[in-house]
Amino acid sequence: MGKSYYYTEEFRNISEEKVSYLIEKLYITKNLRILDFWFWNWSFAKWLRKIFWNSIIIDGIEIDKETIKYASKRYNNIFLKNLENEEIEAKLTNVYDIIVALDVFEHILYPLNVISKLYKLLKKGWIIYIQVPWYNPKIIWDDYTHIRWFTRNSLERLLKDWGFSIKEVGYVWWIPFWWKLWLSEKLKEKILSLPILWKFFRTWYYIIWKK
């Protein structure tokens, strides 16, 4: 049975509401070229295609041939490539307006190699959206495919080391009305570090741009 559940829509589903949120957050509009990096969750491309039809280009980079077989109809182009140890073609440098990496970097052994390639793929002045699990040991290690985790500081250093500027950092939480609280970011960071609250958090994100 191996990978059977891994390749189902149920396992890979992102809601239309989540994608609509990303469209607004990332200012996704017609005539953009978007890269879905390691698109295990191909429903992101499915909803983009439904909303924009053929008015945007959606490409994907993936390392798994089986995933590509299941997802091929959702993308304009798919590149079978491992950015940890493979170079990108010159024709792909500086071509993407937006790159999305949803729950990818916790699976990567050499993240600096990957972020350096994404930097080359991205157009100057445009953005990458990176989402990773919240640094809760249970969330991280309950998935045996995870090989690392990031704190806010460690991921920020990684991104800045390769020349990205930080546009926005945010958290995905399950605490009602948290977003309405008038607290400083420093105080929020201290509150979020309390283990008693970890059960409410699942992921956090960075929006970064290429100078």
The name of the CATH topology is Rossmann fold
Can you count the helices?
Answer: 8
The secondary structure category is alpha/beta
Spatially, the strands of the biggest sheet line up as 3-2-1-4-5-7-6
**Major sheet description:** 7 strands, mixed
Q: Characterize the overall form.
A: globular
Range of helix content: 25-40%
Radius of gyration: 17 Å
Mean pLDDT: 81
Q: Give the ordered list of helices and strands.
A: HHEHEHEEHEHHEHE
The quaternary structure here is single chain
CATH architecture: 3-Layer(aba) Sandwich
The CATH class, by name, is Alpha Beta
Which stretches of 5+ consecutive residues score pLDDT under 50? 1-12
Give the termini distance in whole angstroms: 46 Å
- Count structural domains: 1
Number of strands: 7
- CATH H-tier superfamily: Vaccinia Virus protein VP39
Strand content: 25-35%
Describe this structure in a few short sentences:
This protein has 211 residues and is an alpha/beta fold. It has one domain: Rossmann fold, CATH 3.40.50. Helices cover 31% and strands 26% of the residues.
Please tell me about this protein's structure:
The chain has one domain (5-210): 3-Layer(aba) Sandwich (Rossmann fold), CATH 3.40.50. Helices cover 31% and strands 26% of the residues. The chain is built from 8 helices and 7 strands, in the order ααβαβαββαβααβαβ. The protein has helices spanning 9-12, 16-25, 43-52, 65-71, 111-121, 137-141, 152-161, 185-192, and strands at residues 33-37, 57-62, 77-80, 96-102, 122-133, 164-173, 201-210. The protein has a 7-stranded mixed β-sheet, with helices on both faces. It is globular, with a radius of gyration of 17 Å.
